[in-house]
UniProtKB/TrEMBL annotation:
The keyword Lipid metabolism does not apply. This is FIG056164: rhomboid family serine protease. It comes from uncultured bacterium contig00025. GO terms for cellular component: membrane. It comes from the Bacteria. Belongs to the peptidase S54 family. The lineage of its organism: Bacteria, environmental samples. It is found in: Membrane. The chain crosses the membrane at residues 172-191, 222-245, 257-276, 282-300, 312-328, 334-355. SUPFAM superfamilies: Rhomboid-like (SSF144091). The keyword Lipid biosynthesis does not apply.
Amino acid sequence: MYSFPSFRSALIRRLSARAFQTAGDAAEQNIPRDAASFSLYKEENALLLLLHIVDVSRVDYITLSHAREKQIAGAAALAPQYGGVIAVFLYASAGESRIYFEGDEYFGQSPYAVNWYLNTDNAELSASNGQPSDLFNLRGEILAALKEASGAADANGVTSGKQSPYRVRRDTVALTFVLAAVNTVIMFLMYRAGYNTNPVAVAVRFGAIVRSRVFDGEYYRLFTAMFAHYGWTHLLFNLTGLFIFGTRVERYYGRALFLIIYIFTGLCASVTSLFLTNGIAAGASGAIYGLIGAVFAYTWKSRGHMDGLNNYVALVYIIMGMIFGYAMPNVDYFAHIGGLIAGVASGAAVLSLFWKEAR
């Protein structure tokens, strides 16, 4: 049988395992059993995530509104200390919630207040119009805690056998580091092969795209060009993008899909470069733009964040990258576009064809 105290205990236990802390560092056992609300928080890189949970059946609207305003003001006071503050208000009630707050869409504001409504009778969680219904897989944890509190949790703590598809699938990002290491080793080998004195010839030797050679049958260059770079600066820029976006794609899409997206978008970028440019092309930037596209597709579909990155931040990266890529000389602009389009398309395909949002 559901009770708010049992739900509170289950949720605190689950989120504590993910480094959430109770507000004021108070131990869970010190929260009064008859308390109508409790709060948790977590620092995620430069982001502060606040979670306020309220038993709506025991709080009147005026008291709730005043408490909400106070909590938002407190979040605003903390905002200068972080890159962003998200305050999630979870209103739990039996049946349809009698409490509703209008929600704002996210445009980079901090703090950003998100309103969720948990129907404890049928285990449904909804959000205010225009707001994300999941952030950092909190939805899955909340529903699992509710099921546990109702005495029906299965061995895995999964509600009705379903989890939100928009969740962290990998805690480690080993493949991202492997790709970074491979690119770095190849750069070392290129310098040992005489890159300092004859960079173009060495780049061709290590698999750069040469249109005539590809058309003569050296199709492998469409793949190998992803791992050859024009110097350490070129490599450093691409490794930065790999660590920013690759780690998130690996964590949220999973290792296998991350590798597939990386190679597929890199190949698409190579093909685009082959037909639309005449230079000798090399570099992982097409695949990096593919990862950016996959991040954009994911955050757009989920209306949430990938470790602090949302679709607006991804869009800013895309626009700025395209502007600088077009303005700077010797940049394979068309490879960037080809990789980006392939990344958005492949990300959208994964989300549409293979993942169904839990209800």
